[in-house]
């Protein structure tokens, strides 16, 4: 299963429509995870044309975006937790383990800083932002390959020069 992970698209200010480099990854997706700060629901409609979308609400999301604050789902046997803001960097792994005790992977956003970290039997993954890189060198998305309950590959890839 191929999963594209997005966060912090900040439409319509930063995302007017799906950027072509992002769309190139979405075309082969089996599922899309969006870790919040979509800002307007029309982005979810746009993403849904590529694959099923799972989304959590971010601190900048408008009232038209109907989404939970957290989400737990299973993708090809892999248990995934989602939240927008994982809190301060200090203590993040144990805090996410407590928040999602059954998860193999927790996807989050908010900081716009790409991250892939493992500890305490948990992997935490922030794809960064494809459209609002802030102090990062590139806009980024995450790509996951899941097979029979195992995360075979997790990559963060640049989608801006």
TrEMBL record:
This enzyme's EC code(s):
3.1.4.-
Calcineurin-like phosphoesterase domain segment(s): 1-148
- Names of required cofactors: a divalent metal cation
Taken from the record, one Pfam family name reads Metallophos_2
Q: Which UniProt keywords apply?
A: Metal-binding
Which InterPro entries does this UniProt record tie to the protein? Answer: Calcineurin-like_PHP_lpxH, Metallo-depent_PP-like, Phosphodiesterase_MJ0936/Vps29
User: Does this UniProt record's set of keywords contain Lyase?
Assistant: no
Provide the GO MF annotations for this entry. hydrolase activity; metal ion binding
State the family named in the UniProt similarity comment for this chain. Belongs to the metallophosphoesterase superfamily. YfcE family.
Matching NCBIfam families, A to Z?
A: yfcE
The entry's protein name is Phosphoesterase
Species of origin reads Nonomuraea rhodomycinica
């Amino acid at each position: 299963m191929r999963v594209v992970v997005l966060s912090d698209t900040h439409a319509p200010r930063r995302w007017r429509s799906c950027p072509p480099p992002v769309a190139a990854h979405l075309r082969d997706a089996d599922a899309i995870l969006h870790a919040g700060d979509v800002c307007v629901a029309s982005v979810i409609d746009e993403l849904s044309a590529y694959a099923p979308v799972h989304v959590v609400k971010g601190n900048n999301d408008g009232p038209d975006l109907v989404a939970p604050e957290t989400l737990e789902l299973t993708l090809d046997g892999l248990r995934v937790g989602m939240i927008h803001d994982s809190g301060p960097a200090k203590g993040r792994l144990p805090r996410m383990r407590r928040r999602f005790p059954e998860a193999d992977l927790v996807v989050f956003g908010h900081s716009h800083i790409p991250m892939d970290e493992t500890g305490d039997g948990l992997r935490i993954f922030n794809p960064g932002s494809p459209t609002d890189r802030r102090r990062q060198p590139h806009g980024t998305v995450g790509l996951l390959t899941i097979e029979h309950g195992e995360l075979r590959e997790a990559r963060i890839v640049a989608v801006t020069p």
